[in-house]
Design a protein that fits this description.
β2 and β3 form a beta hairpin. The chain contains six helices and eleven strands. The protein is globular and about 50 Å long. The chain folds into two domains: 151 residues, no CATH class; 83 residues, no CATH class. The strands form two sheets. Strands 1-8-11-5-6-7-3-2 form an eight-stranded mixed β-sheet. The protein is an alpha+beta fold and 248 residues long.
């Protein structure tokens, strides 16, 4: 059973770069291969997200082009998102902000080599397929996800899995405390409701990411987190359940 929190999955392929137009062509995800999470994403998994929040959609909450899954680091915008036989193909245009310029130089210098998606599994669209030829005895066929963003990353590993293996003891407690404090700040800002819809949406997405990282860290041992209630992220999300557990 796949959780419906904010998840990350990597892809390594960069197809092309246009330095004059500040555009990059990449694959954000690949189809029909079993990855390290025992997932096989199938063609069509991103269709609904592209229709609802893709570059040509009518919605104002577009799928974002980020750096390191950080919702405060939007480095540009996607001009094109579509599925072909290989995977989720994207053309992104890098912005002229400091963050966009830094990403542009990192693409040119070959520092950015990989990409990753931030998404949510959909329970009834994910199915376990028994297969004796696979080491785990089978794999998850992922037929639809809710895509939030595509990120340029230095290394396309699942960052939320890695933090559990690397951070232990007091370091881990300190990281949990830092994430909890950051969540409290973000939630207060969201409750205040100041700023544009786009700012509040970015804040909501950051909260989802931080909460998923916090839950992943906490699940490695019986540390009890009091500040944030670990609710799955379904829509509409009931923020009152979270806010009632905060000490403002």
């Amino acid at each position: 059973m796949r959780n419906n929190l904010y998840n990350i999955k990597a892809s390594a392929e960069i197809r092309d770069m246009d330095s004059v137009g500040r555009k990059v062509a990449v694959y954000l995800a690949k189809f029909d291969n079993i990855d390290s999470d025992n997932d096989m994403i199938t063609k069509g998994a991103f269709t609904k997200s592209i229709q609802e929040r893709g570059p040509q959609s009518a919605g104002n909450r577009k799928i974002a082009f980020l750096r390191h899954h950080n919702w405060e680091m939007q480095i540009g915008k996607f001009l094109e998102l579509n599925e072909d036989e290989n995977g989720l193909f994207a053309v992104g245009e890098l912005g002229t902000s400091t963050q966009g310029e830094d990403a542009f130089r990192d693409y040119e210098d070959g520092i950015i080599r990989e990409h990753s998606i931030g998404f949510q599994y959909i329970a009834d669209k994910t199915k376990w397929i028994p297969d004796s030829s696979v080491e785990a005895g089978g794999y998850f066929s992922v037929n639809e996800v809710k895509l939030y963003e595509g990120s340029a990353v230095t290394f396309g590993a699942n960052e939320m899995t890695n933090v559990v293996g690397v951070i232990k003891g007091e370091q881990k407690h300190a990281r949990i405390e830092r994430i909890t404090n950051e969540l409290n700040i973000c939630l207060k800002a969201l409750v205040n409701g100041k700023g544009t819809d786009e700012r509040l949406h970015e804040m909501e997405m950051k909260i989802k990411y931080l909460n998923s990282e916090l839950i992943t860290l906490a699940s490695a041992d019986p540390i009890m987190i009091q500040s944030v209630k670990s609710e799955p992220f379904n829509e509409p999300f009931n923020w009152s359940n979270v806010i009632n557990n905060l000490n403002f």
